[in-house]
């Protein structure tokens, strides 16, 4: 049966719906598209960082801010259920950060990011990093308008996580294996986690990092800077 | 994930699409949820029952949840296949592939009215 024409006829019997109108995450995806448009207009590279709680997202961002905070104009939005703690930790490095307190919600939605952006001066900003709520489940389903999603997995977790949480790894551009300085003490296999992740997403890029022991951070920062440059160049092509 | 808020989202979506008069005659809602949507059908059912009871509306409306498998389309050999055990390879040519065409949806597929 056809989709009902609103107000011209009364719904009877079985109504089969148009997939686009009855998509339950429609509102989120609409706002995400607006964010993407705004970021393209302003040439800001938007990165969405996800992981389980405790994988080292904030520590990585602190180190990233120390390294490249002086080279690119960057800001951070950080989501947590409660407290300003993570934003405070980022600000200690001299980079501007804004905390999004979700008040118990297990993921960031595009609407929260949009509202936070309205309280952030984006003039001249080249790189905006969103640190999502620590959770590999729900954040996977919510597009925030990002250019790239980057997922951390710490060596203190199980190396079989990519297949347990497939959507997150499927939608990520890069997997950062964090806390690699602890590898010798743990049963974690980098080879196994990479194989598991590539089963789900054959194109996923992988970097091994340790934020506290300065391992792999150069490669991570280089990747970020290269992507910032690409985003800046899109503007020139458009305006030329 | 957050099934309660999804149930509210179902009601909001229906209320923006149909009139109150129409919704008074609603008997069943069919959802299509992809395996990658992180929605658990049983929890969805429980959340639906909890919300309809607590808010005293749409009581008696049946919720049917249909799980949609993950389907990928291979641009090399132009064939579509179902992903088993989250191994994203083309079943036809064996190449790695994550061009997902089905399996992420979270849709109201059909609404049944008693009239």
Describe this structure in words.
The complex is a heterodimer of chains A (240) and B (115). Chain A has 240 residues and is α/β, with parallel strands linked by helices. Chain A has a single domain, classed as Rossmann fold. Chain A contains eight helices and eight strands; from the N terminus they run E-H-E-H-E-H-E-H-E-E-H-H-E-H-E-H. A seven-stranded parallel β-sheet of chain A has the order 4-3-5-2-6-7-8, sandwiched between helices. In chain A, helix 7 links the parallel strand 7 and strand 8. In chain A, helix 1 packs parallel to helix 4. The N and C termini of chain A lie far apart (49 Å). Chain B is α+β, with helices and mostly antiparallel strands and 115 residues long. Chain B has a domain of 79 residues: 2-Layer Sandwich (hypothetical protein PF0899 fold), CATH 3.30.2320.50. Chain B is 30% helix and 29% strand. Chain B has three helices and six strands, in the order ααβαβββββ. Chain B has a three-stranded mixed β-sheet. In chain B, strands 4-3-5 form a three-stranded antiparallel β-sheet, with no helix packed on it. In chain B, helix 3 links the parallel strand 1 and strand 2. Chain B is elongated and about 50 Å long. Chain B starts with a helix and ends with a strand. The model of chain B has no long low-confidence stretch (mean pLDDT 92). The chains are: A alpha/beta (240), B alpha+beta (115).
Helix and strand topology:
The complex is a heterodimer of chains A (240) and B (115).
Chain A: E1 14-16, H1 26-42, E2 45-50, H2 57-68, E3 74-80, H3 85-91, E4 96-101, H4 110-118, E5 127-131, E6 148-154, H5 161-164, H6 166-170, E7 174-178, H7 190-200, E8 205-208, H8 217-239
Parallel strand pairs in A: 2-5, 2-6, 3-4, 3-5, 6-7, 7-8
Helix pairs in contact in A: 1-4, 2-3, 2-8
Chain B: H1 3-17, H2 20-24, E1 26-34, H3 41-54, E2 62-68, E3 71-73, E4 80-82, E5 100-102, E6 106-113
Parallel strand pairs in B: 1-2
Antiparallel strand pairs in B: 1-6, 3-4, 3-5
């Amino acid at each position: 049966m056809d989709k009902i024409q609103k107000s011209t006829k009364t719904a009877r019997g079985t109504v089969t719906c148009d997939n686009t109108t009855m998509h339950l995450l429609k509102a989120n995806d609409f706002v995400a598209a607006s964010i993407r448009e705004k970021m393209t207009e302003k040439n800001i590279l938007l990165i969405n960082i996800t992981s389980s709680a405790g994988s080292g997202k904030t520590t990585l961002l602190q180190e990233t801010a120390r390294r490249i905070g002086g080279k690119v104009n960057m800001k951070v939005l950080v989501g947590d259920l409660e407290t300003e703690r993570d934003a405070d930790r980022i600000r200690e490095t001299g980079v501007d950060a804004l905390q999004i307190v979700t008040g118990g919600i297990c993921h960031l939605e595009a609407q929260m990011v949009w509202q936070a952006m309205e309280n952030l001066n984006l003039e001249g900003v080249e790189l905006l990093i969103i640190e999502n709520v620590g959770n590999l489940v729900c954040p996977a389903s919510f597009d925030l308008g990002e250019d790239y999603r980057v997922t951390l997995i710490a060596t203190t977790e199980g190396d079989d996580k990519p297949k347990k949480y497939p959507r997150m790894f499927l939608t990520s551009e890069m997997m950062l294996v964090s806390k690699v300085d602890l590898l010798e003490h743990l049963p974690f296999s980098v080879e196994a986690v990479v194989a598991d992740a590539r089963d789900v997403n054959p194109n996923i890029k992988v970097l091994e990092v340790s934020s506290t022991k300065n391992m792999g951070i150069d490669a991570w920062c280089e990747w970020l800077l290269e992507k910032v440059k690409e985003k800046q160049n899109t503007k020139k092509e458009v305006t030329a | 994930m957050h099934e309660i808020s999804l149930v509210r989202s179902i009601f909001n979506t229906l209320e923006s699409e149909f009139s109150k008069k129409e919704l008074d005659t609603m008997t069943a809602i069919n959802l299509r949820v992809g395996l990658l949507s992180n929605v658990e059908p049983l929890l969805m059912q429980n959340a639906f029952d909890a919300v309809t009871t607590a808010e005293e509306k749409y009581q008696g409306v049946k919720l049917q949840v249909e799980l949609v498998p993950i389907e990928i389309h291979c641009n090399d050999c132009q064939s579509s296949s179902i992903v088993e055990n989250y191994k994203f390879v083309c079943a036809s040519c064996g190449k790695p592939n994550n061009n997902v065409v089905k399996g992420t949806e979270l849709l109201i597929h059909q609404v049944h009215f008693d009239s």
